[in-house]
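Below is how a single chain appears once it has passed through the pipeline. First comes the sequence as given, then the structure the pipeline wrote out for it. We keep one example in the README because the format questions we get most often are answered faster by looking than by reading.
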Amino acid sequence: MSEKTAVNDHLGTTVPQTEDSQPPATNTAYQDPSNCYIDAEKCTCEECNTRRKTVKQHVWITAEKDEDPCKNRRRTLVLCFDGTGDEFDHDNSNVVQLLEALRKDDHSRQLVYYQAGLGTSSNPVTNPVVPSHLARIWDMMVAKSLSSHVRDGYAFLMQNYTAGDKICMFGFSRGAYTARALAGMLHKVGLLPSGNFQQIPFAYKMYEGDDMDLIKYYKRANCREVDIDFLGVWDTVASVGLLPQYLPHVHDNDAILQLRHAIALDEHRVKFIPQFCVDPKPENLKEKKEKEETPFKVSDHIAESPQTMFPPVNSPTKESTKREEERRRIREIKEVWFTGVHCDVGGGAVKNKETVKLSGISLRWMIRECFECNTRIVFDAKALRKIGLPVCIPRESPDGKPILEPLYQMSRSDYVAQEITAQEKSVLENFDLHDLPHDYERKRDLHDAMADIHDRLKISPVWYLLEWLPWYVKKEKATVNPALTGWGSYKWTWNRGKGRKIVKREIEEGWLVHRTVLLRLYADENYAPKVRPNITAAKASRKNPTKKTKRLRALTREEWISGNNLYKHKQRAWEWVPSLKAESEKYKE
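Resulting structure:
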């Protein structure tokens, strides 16, 4: 009897076999590899066993605040857009650190997309005449590839989105602008069905256009309407490129259900004016206050019939009702200011090996907001511990699932600069999820808040020289007023290193400052944020004592601590977050 050789494509090994012999019944390695991939959890082949052992080394935690009855029918699409010149390197941004903490091996629950920043080797500007390194520098200056970045993210969603999926986006700097532009394109044009790659350039042309009748017709005829469940960005810049570019619906977009924006208090370069996030409907400012007093009721918006009020838990009616309920709620926008300059908030100012850095504070805040907003993003529990979040597995937990401990309450003793001890360092580097001190996050915030501020005007003289040249930049009012668009929303300015302006509407919608700023103010007598809020009282000038003019200026350290900034009705213009307003009032006494 002759012997034949059967090649197992799945394992890549050679197995001796005779004409009369059959593959062993217990060896599932002979099955179709595609079937093995679909039912990999039951497959007993060597490759799948190895994969399962590797997966078991990870402990996953889902960002959810309460149980979602339709969670088994949903997956999360996470899109990450890095900043200008940022990619995987030795000084990664918060976008890469967030990406590192995401689960990427289970596409049935979560699908992750990462895009390197403008002017990187991952996104070369194709030009046969100009060398590649010069093309990348030019791209960083003028943002020539911005449109292709937006279209690439759109193509990912077009190919992978199915009804019921959650869409979550993150970005830093110009990557944040890209994410917000993509959200604006989805809002204005909609999402094409899968496979329509040829239509993407035309859809982008519709997005840039202003013929609303044609755009609405195109959206109705070709696209699906989708919501962005969560948009988290770090320090979005108001204009992109050496020559300012403007894209529609970047600062006003009612398709975003939850928006979180971390902004730098101490950035003062002329080309880094922040792009604020505003409520697209100004009348909602009054409605928000009414909503705080009157709880939201489904019966206020939905007919009280037995079919709509009590649908089955997993029924499509329940799912659509929940989505309608979310859409009817006023969009929640939260912008929080942090200590530091642009890269101190978005990351990339220090090497990866450095554990003490200002960017860690805004990263932890953003991830906590993912949990608060029920994004259902799946994280690696140990990666969150490495970032500094108090993730642990309670010893009394019956299912062994990790949890994110509640945010700690700071006390007066926290506002003292301390050196990190060897014992504390060993605790911070301990990744046993069953053993975690309750002040874990407090210690990280304490040390990160006192990290160095990397002011580029002091580090790089080139940036300082640019401050003494006239520049054509976006008006501060245009960053909060959707009506101011086009070239009329820009102006000539001579910045000379002055801090960022905070306009009146931004303050009225809620000026939130992270509580670690107060920590640094108490610990460092030489620190005062460079930002210039529009809250100081009008003063008489020397030339004309009878005429009072309002002058924007940076507040002193004493004004920040006491809150005595001469704002209307003698109220503090900002609020310490999270949950520190009452405590800071107590410290004034």
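The chain has three domains: 3-56, 60-280+332-448, 282-330.

See the next section for the split statistics.
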